[in-house]
Amino acid sequence: MDVEAMMIGLVALAAVLGLRRFQLRGASELEVDGTRFVPIADVDAVRDLLTAPGPGMLFIHDPGCPVSAGAHREMARLGGEIPMVNVQRSHDISRAVEATTGVRHESPQVFVVSDGRVSWSASHTAITASAVREAIAQSATDRNDRDGTRTATIELTEQAG
What domain range is 41 assigned to? Predict the structure, then answer.
């Protein structure tokens, strides 16, 4: 598929999904309504993300799935940067997520992690902006309770929509 055909397809998809604005960034990043979906490049990057100290999040997405499209819209409401695995392109990475987290692969799927452990995950229609926001807040509270310190949290902004 050439670049022009891909752009036409993306414009059509954006119209179907009701997106007000989107922008391709770089070779594979996609910005939707102010949220930047950043693809995970390789297995090492996903392991680093999932085992890093502090809070983190990961979105597993299948662009060919209507349920995943709905989850993608919900995630776009969060704002900021969201690390994402495209399961159609990255089977090895999605398998590494399962191996690293111990959570069975489903798509779509979201993980909230804190200090190398999964503090919350959801799949399919349980993925909502409010549920993810609440899980991140709870993860930060739990982390503060564990170590008795104040920690930074992932900054999310409500996107109009």
Answer: 34-147
